[in-house]
Amino acid sequence: MDARDRILDAKKIVVKVGTTTLTHESGKLNLNRIEKLARVLSDLNNSGKQFILVSSGAIGVGVNRLNLDRADMTLPERQASASVGQAILMKIYQKLFGEYNQTVSQILLTKDIMDNLEGKQNAENTMNTLLELGIIPIVNENDTISTFEIQFGDNDTLSATVASLVDADLLILLSDIDGLFTADPRKDPDAKIISVVEEVTREVESLASGSGSEFGTGGMITKLTAAKICGKEGIDTIIANGEDPSIIYNILDGEEIGTLFLSR
After folding, report:
1. Which of 102, 143, 204, 238 has the most CB atoms less than 10 A away?
2. Binding residues for ATP
């Protein structure tokens, strides 16, 4: 069986969208792309798939609304930006998903909740109940109260934690990159995309580089970490370019899109 064929049976899927996928270069929301994402996930949800959307973007949206300088922000300003931005982001998600008669919910997590047995169980029960009701939970880190001790640090890690929590079949990481390459494609024109990774080895990790966006917090390194977390839990991971959210159709059809990290 081809490695991609196993994706055809995936029913419970976590999709993570990065800040660069949700925003223009200005940092303001890309409403056309968010609308497409809402349409694709709503349509696939109608077909019987179950989705959890892990969404970045709250701090970036808040920074723009409050006219703050991201480079010089204090922790309280960052948390204030998250508070304002999360409310704006959810209002837009509710409106756009609502256009397709799809109900969404908001879940904000911190690492200490997931490290607490009761909190973790409550989160798992809530998410699975929402999925059974046909609702798409939209998850983000609770940056409004998060400090170093209780933060995931990036939404790639958060999405892998969520996928493990609900025993997902597949994690899709959508970003501004096509997948894992043999070298940095921005610097090496001969760089080639790697279609399938059977194991995240040190050699594979050496291919990773940092994020090229001033608005995003993750890079290829955090995505490989997410793939390793999911791999140990029997969950496949795909890294793909989220410029056109309809790529999710192609991924779930088993097409050779992005880089597939096979679980053990």
Report:
1. 238
2. 16, 175-176, 217-223
